[in-house]
Amino acid sequence: xxxxxxxxxxxxxxxxxxxxxxxxxxxxxxxxxxxxxxxxxxxxxxxxxxxxxxxxxxxxxxxxxxxxxxxxxxxxxxxxxxxxxxxxxxxxxxxxxxxxxxxxxxxxxxxxxxxxxxxxxxxxxxxxxxxxxxxxxxxxxxxxxxxxxxx
Length: 151
Ligand code: FES
Ligand code: FES
Known about the structure:
Blueprint (H helix, E strand, L loop, with lengths): L1 H4 L3 H8 L9 H4 L3 E9 L4 E10 L4 E9 L3 H14 L4 H4 L4 H7 L16 H17 L14
Antiparallel strand pairs: 1-2, 2-3
Helix pairs in contact: 2-4, 4-6, 4-7, 6-7
Bound molecules: FE2/S2 (inorganic) cluster (FES) (2 copies).
């Protein structure tokens, strides 16, 4: 049907076989700082957990993994989000928006990766970055500016 065609192959690929799904524990951390952040979308009950290993000397996210009780779009978005975080400083990761995640999931730069009704699912991937950064920095999540655009 038409709706099926509105999902990019990249979304289909990542929801079926996510690259960055998994968890990290203190045993993985060594000298690095482990951050574990949860975020939930109250409207649909979906939840995501983000794991970061951060080099405290440079604030660089060395490893980024996630787990999810989310829909397929949430899984694909979280998988891409985790990938976009890797190698960035925490401050640079904070600049990633849900639109960046969705654009990175497109097959064609001019065609949305998901149907419009599913754009909000990428917002959870954006919110959990803010949650993780707030834990790392020891500040309130609300202290970060909200820059995402829902659709
Ligand atoms: Fe819940 Fe997509 S419907 S995250
Ligand atoms: Fe699922 Fe918004 S309803 S993330």
